[in-house]
Every structure is written in C-alpha cells, then in structure tokens.
C-alpha cells in the first residue's frame, strides 16, 4: 500500500510499504529519504504517536493515508493535532490553522477530499467537526469489516453460522461490484428522472399535463377542475375511494370536455379526485383513445397517430410547485398510483385499481441489520443519515432507487 508522509519542514514523501510493516522499518525508509536519523524521528497518525514495534495495520493506517513525521526538535502542537476518540479535533481552530499553513496538504485534500478541504478553509468549525467525525466513522466501519472478513477466513468450516456469514459476505461483494460497475458504465441510472409533462389546454385554460401511461384513468384535481370551469359538470354518481399508495376520495366524473393539444381539440373525460398534491394527469384511457405515442427518441408526444406532436417539457420549464408535488407523491399520494371503486345509480359495482412500475410499496421496510448496512453505505457517499433513512423508507429499502433519488435531489 502507499503511505504519504509529511515531515515537519513540509516535505512530502510517498512510500510503498506492506500493511504489516513495522513503524521502525518505516522510519528506516524515511531516514534514507529525508536524512533524518531513525532515533530522532517521531511518527504520528491521527494525532497519536506510533511506537517502533507497532505494525502499520494495527495502528489503523490504510492505503493512501497521511502520517506525520517530526524530529525530536519539531514536536507537534498538541492542540493542533490531537483528536478526540470520535475523530473530532481537540482544538478545531488550531487544526484549521495548521492545515491552512500546509499548501501541499491542502492541495492533496482539495483533490482527494474537497468537502473536508472546504470545511478547513471555511469559518464553520461545527461543520468541520461533523466531517471529521464522519470520516472517523467511515474508517472505523471499514476496519470493522476488514476484521470480520479476517475472522471469517479462519472460521471453523463446519460452523453453520460462520458459513452463513461467509455466504452473505460473498453475496454482498457481488452486489458491491455490481454497484461499482453501474457507477462506471451506467451513471445516469443514479440521476433523478424528470417525469413527462406537456403543455395542454383544458377547456381553454393552459396546464402542464403529466403524461402517465401507468395510470388507467385521466385524473384532474378538484381545484384544477374548478379553475377550468368544469366543476359544474361533475357527476357525483361516480363517487368512491381511490386506492393505491394511500387513498383519496373520488368526487365524481366529468364525462366529456375539450382539451387542446398543439392546435387540435380532442374530447376527454376525467375522474375528479380530492388530491391536493396532483393537478392533471393524462392517463392510459385517453392515450389509447387518441392513439398517442410516447416518442422518447425525439422527446415528443404524438397524438392522433402522429397528426400532432408536442415536445415534452424540460426540467427548467416545469414549475417548482409541480416538482415538489412529484416528491410528495412519492411519499404516499395517488398521482402515480390511483385506483377507483365506484357504484352506478343502479348499484352495479365498478372497481379499478393499478400501481405503476417504480412506485414505492405501501408496506414500510424492515429496519434490521441489512437496512442499517444500506444506510451506512449511502452515508459513505456523502449524504446525511436522516436523508438516507427517509429515502430508503420511501423506496421500501431499494438501495439503487434511494441512491438515484438522493443524487437527483
């Protein structure tokens, strides 16, 4: 592994050593590089002096870590370099001053850990302490995993529990490799997907219509129907309850009203929902009726077999309140998953229910050891724990969907 050593006179030395190398042998290599006698060297890691007999791995030194070397006449400032058991600096102001005065160290941090570098250059010591604590937790977790892997190597091959752990470790390794391959070859999968919206006019009122082929019915909210002057046509005989990820009241049905797509008018029917977080959803019933084609290559919605083409809106053209509604819908609304249970005047039941692909499940995820492992992995990517926990709950523990949501947030 490679270890970077910074001397008291700000000299940077990079050495290729074995992880089980002793500190004394490291000092011998440094004597050749720096001309500082071995007996006058003091090696510090995380603010603590390492003894000659210690091994680098036992002291927690990992590949790419930075250690400090001082001669006996260059004792480090105790306040500047000492750290607490949780990884935070004893004196954060002195820590900042010490790091800022080392141009080479700051250059390395800006390249390898820009978040920590910005915290050192900033004035918020609380943020600096939080980042230092987070880095310490990451190192501790990595060390714990390495110790577990080492213990499994020497486990009793006839121990059933040990074999289960080995099987889980192999499976997790495959998942991690798949994750890394996706980040390298398919990074767009982790970005937030902008939903499909087009400009329409409903009864002469301009709207941003959400095109959703996964919803069986075209849906309009009560407030939107009132704004479009259609509430007077509401047939309350079709009242009911919409059931999906949660539930919402169906106020009735508007049997026909004109919508304008491009320059052509089309007849459309609507189910009216009392759903404040959803305005207008162009569902599969009208997509079929008007022979619509969702052309993602040209990024247009073709209507009437191609007689009209309207472009899907870019993210900048979608109003902020609609983008917020999308997030609210993921937390349990019916804008993406609606169902209908209504009864006609004669009493004939008519049930309708659907859940589109990708909608979060109604049951909350189990927060066991596997859930905590997913939380830890996503926190290591730089997100705070509260946001990670919420995202995993939102997507029923699906790690990839939670990551995509966080990256796109």
UniProtKB/TrEMBL annotation:
Residues 370-409 form the UBA domain. Signal peptide: none annotated. InterPro entries: DDI1_N, Peptidase_aspartic_DDI1-type, Peptidase_aspartic_dom_sf, UBA, UBA-like_sf, Ubiquitin-like_dom, Ubiquitin-like_domsf. CDD domains: RP_DDI (cd05479), UBA_scDdi1_like (cd14309), Ubl_Ddi1_like (cd01796). The keyword Cytoplasm applies. Residues 329-369 are annotated as: Disordered. GO terms for cellular component: cytoplasm. The keyword Signal does not apply. It is found in: Cytoplasm. It comes from the Eukaryota. Keywords: Aspartyl protease, Cytoplasm, Hydrolase, Protease. One of its GO terms (biological process) is proteolysis. Residues 1-69 form the Ubiquitin-like domain. Residues 332-341 have a biased composition (Polar residues). Belongs to the DDI1 family. This is DNA damage-inducible protein 1. It comes from Zea mays (Maize). The gene is LOC103654835.
